[in-house]
Amino acid sequence: MKRKVIAALLCTSMAITLMAGCGSNKKTGADNASDTTKTETAGDEGNADADAETETGTTEKKASGEMLTKFADVPEDVDKEQTLRYAQGADPRGLDPAMIDDGESSKPICQMYEGLLKYGDSDTEVEPCLAESWEISEDGLTYTFKLREGVKFHDGTDFNAEAVKYNVDRQTVNKTEDMLYADFVYGDVAECNVVDEYTVEFKLTKKSTPFLNNLAMSLGAPMVSPTACDAANGNLNEAPCGTGPYKFVRWDKNEAVVMERNEDYWGDKGVAKEIIFSTIPDNSARVVALTNGEVDIIDGIDATVVDQITSAGCLLYQAEGMNINYMAYNTQKVTDPDVRKALSEAVNIPELVDSLYKGYASQATSILPTFMPGYSADVKQTAYNPDDAKKILEEKGITELKMMAYTNPRPYNTATGQTLAEALQGYFDKVGVKVSIDSYDWTTYKEKLGAGDYDMCLYGWIGDNGDPDNFMYLLAHEDPEMNVALYRNEEYNTMLSEAASMENGDDRNAAYAKMEQKIADENIWLPISHQQNLSGYVSNVQNFIAHPTGNVFLSKTYKN
Amino acid sequence: MRKKQQVQTTGEALEKPESQIRVMWDTLKKNKAAVAGLVVILFFLFLAVMGDWLAPYDPEYSDMGHTFVAPCRDYYFGTDQLGRDIFSRVLSGTKISLFVGVAAVAYSLLIGTVLGSVAGYFGGKVDSFIMRCMDIMLSIPSILLAITLMAALGKGLDKAIIAIGTVSIPEYARIVRSSILSVKENDYVAAAKVVGNSDRRIIFHHILPNVVSSIVVRATLGISTAILDTAALGFLGMGVQPPMAEWGDMLGRARTYIFSAPYTLIFPGLAITLAVLAFNLFGDGLRDALDPKERV
To answer: Locations of Acidic residues compositional bias (chain A) (predicted)?
Structure first.
């Protein structure tokens, strides 16, 4: 049985070659980088200062890329036969906008579907889309939309007022349990009426300031083809059909969603002939795929790989992210607010955020990110105080707790849930609380959350519409997969619905600040960080914008 | 010369069983690779016993202010993503890997030997039943079976031992059964039966001592497999409950940082390789020494 020895030796040598391989790989990456940078600079502006000697300098200069805020015009001579490949960290949960609630599903959906309204290229100001114009009645309870004419769904069905009514009814009167965003988007809609073929009217139950913003969301709000939906028994997860610039081709589960240009699109047609959203769960594998040129754009970038991306000559898109990364206490299990306070005191948030996200995420001082309306710098979170925490937890006899975490990276937590959970475990350990971690992959995790078998869990939220209601509603939601703290508080719910009906302005912002403080005082969540939106792309990718909602709209993006 | 030695060994073994160990040791000593393996094993055993005392830091203490420190004077192997000292963690992992390796082998050895002896000695329907069950287990890839068991049992060292031990039961059962089949035809077994010894006595006093050598060899090699399986389970995040330091688990967590902080990955990886290699070399040497027939 010398074979075993030989096998062991082979393994060792393989490991060594692997390491050597990485080294040489990197080198080629750098070489490529200088090449591309050179051609780009020369081609673009005719700048001659990018000779071989200054390659590092050039790469660094170009590393963060130019952050577009508006899509530029697409040149005439661009290759219209190209394939654009985008890699993300998890497979979509589904491709029916009414049935899903996660960013990975939302990104492919944005290419295939559209709503009545849409957001600006890099902000959350609403703009006309399938609705050309709208009117709001005096009392703010009736919205009348004039629809765009001549639009067809991918299956040939006409888009008209009936189609809108079908979509709204689907998520209001005909709502099913699995429509996770129905309440977010249409919760205040009393009825939806067809006025004429291209005019539709919404009647609301109460004044709702976020309503217009909600209609531009990528979840819930996009319009699906009524014919296709009926044909698929009311679930388009596997057979998406919208009006967007790209049409669904196929979905290889856990591999890729493939879509092709919609040649009958009503607006500017997509540039790339084909867009592929591939799933590469492993952070480092995704980066390698980018630096090897297997994919053109990736997201979910962890701070530790930024250098690897830039040194391979790829560019980084870096923008403030509209998200929150938090740990929630299960308020049905950890019922004592003092215990929650003590646990929150145990965690040194600034240190944690600095070391996990290396400056690519900012410490969360409130649930709302700083640039959003409703954010207030006056909200006071529980401060780091391990001694007090230790004392209280000892008094209360808390020694063991159970935490649930996800294993993969998330857009609001690029360091992976597992790493964050272990870091938190370290802090709790220092105040004498042993925390056991149950971690599952994202899809399983969401199912496990529903069972509520945890004392605390990790979660996060990516804002969908730029309205504070979108974040704060989470704590009033009845679905345990959304409101993972299982917070049930009548007073809070009243505050929330009052704030939702206020006009945008200082009063409304103050109302949200008050709610933030209430949540902070009761220690329902432990807000951790706001992650920057980091995307990496190959240097020849043009016209790429990562939207603050975490979505990407790729119909104008192309490669030189 | 080989032949002569063989004759000698068998001859002596019949007269004075204790000198068999001496012969074995003499043969083993000549095998340089096996001696090296033994030395490394003893070194790891030393680390397992003294690890906690030698470790400069608490292996589970995370210092978020000092994450990803490259190997230096303060941290010999650097620190990981949570600011834990990798040197201390590798040391502490030695204890876990060796313990799981030995315990899993002991567990499967015990059950495997009993099942194998019963099957081999009694034969017939009992034999068929036991061995078909073993065949079924063997038909499932061992790591897959271990993962399934872990998924059913949940995380934890004790469960890892059961999972890893269970998957190798059939191997021991087979070896013991085949050895017993060949031994039980011997005259002295027949003699023992005639004298009126009970089945249990015959199995334990007359048959098993004669199959010990092949079991020992298999067990030594089995430890290395068990260490690898432990690491594999840990790598897949199913082995130990964090923050416990286990080599495979460290490797799995550090995988993300392979380019930015390779030291988080290299040292636990090296430890696994070394331990497995050592047990393999020693096991092979032991086989040569114990079982001269197989050297041909």
So the answer is: 42-54
Share of chain B above pLDDT 70, in %: 91
Round to whole Å and give the CA distance between B37 and B43: 10
CA distance A48 to A194: 62
CB contact under 8 A, A19 and B82: no
Q: How far is A389 from chain B (nearest CA, A)?
A: 18
Distance, in angstroms, between A390 CA and closest chain B CA? 16
Chain B residues with CB under 8 Å of A410 CB are none
A421 lies within 8 A of chain B by CB = yes
- Which residues lie closer than 8 Å to B141 by C-beta, 6 or more apart? none
Q: E-assigned strands of A432-521?
A: 434-440, 456-462
Q: Which residues have CB under 8 Å from B154's CB, separation 6+?
A: none
pLDDT tens, residue by residue, B278-293: 999 999 888 888 765 6
The string over A23-57, giving b where at least 16 C-beta atoms fall within 10 Å of a residue's C-beta and e elsewhere, is eeeeeebbebbbebbbebbeeeeeeeebeeeebee
Per the CB < 8 A criterion, the answer to whether A12 and B273 are in contact is: yes
Q: Does domain B20-54+63-294 have CATH number 1.10.10.60?
A: no
CB of A11 within 8 Å of any CB in chain B? yes
Q: What is the CB neighbour count within 10 angstroms for residue B19?
A: 12
Q: How many Å lie between the alpha carbon of B238 and the closest alpha carbon of chain A?
A: 10
Alpha carbons A412 and A116: distance in angstroms, whole number: 28
Residue A20, C-beta contacts closer than 8 angstroms, at least 6 positions apart: none
The shortest C-alpha distance from A287 to chain B (Å) reads 10
pLDDT at A65: 61
B65 within 8 A of B78, measured Cβ to Cβ: no
User: Could you count the other beta carbons within 10 Å of the beta carbon of residue A454?
Assistant: 21
B258/A284 CB distance under 8 A: yes
Per residue in A425-441, pLDDT (tens digit) is 999 999 999 999 998 88
Taking a C-beta distance cutoff of 8 angstroms, is the pair B107, B165 a contact?
yes
Question: What pLDDT was estimated at residue A44?
Answer: 38
Chain pair A-B, CB pairs under 8 angstroms:
98
A166 or B25, which is more confident? A166
What pLDDT is recorded for position B67?
A: 87
Collapsing DSSP states into helix, strand and coil, what is residue A509?
A: helix
* Contact between chains at B256 and A283 (C-beta distance less than 8 A): yes
Interface test with B, best of A3, A4, A430, A448 (most B CBs within 10 A): A4
For chain B, the domains span 20-54+63-294
CA-based nearest residue in chain A for residue B67:
A355
Instruction: Please name which of A267, A311, A303 lies closest in space to residue A284, comparing C-alpha atoms.
Output: A303
- Out of B60, B261, B280, closest to residue A8 by CB: B280
CB B175 within 8 A of CB B134: no
Q: Which of these, A159, A176, A314, A145, lies nearest to A241 by C-alpha position?
A: A159
| Count of positions (residues) in chain B | 296
Helices (H), A318-439: 337-346, 349-357, 386-396, 417-430
B98-140 confidence digits (pLDDT tens): 999 999 999 999 999 999 999 988 888 999 999 999 999 999 9
> What does each C-alpha distance from A428 to A265, A347, B62, B193 come to in angstroms?
55, 7, 11, 65
Cα of B185 vs its chain's centroid, Å = 31
**What pLDDT, on the 0 to 100 scale, is given for residue A193?**
93
Please write the tens of the pLDDT for every residue from A57-98: 333 334 566 678 889 888 888 999 999 999 998 899 899 999
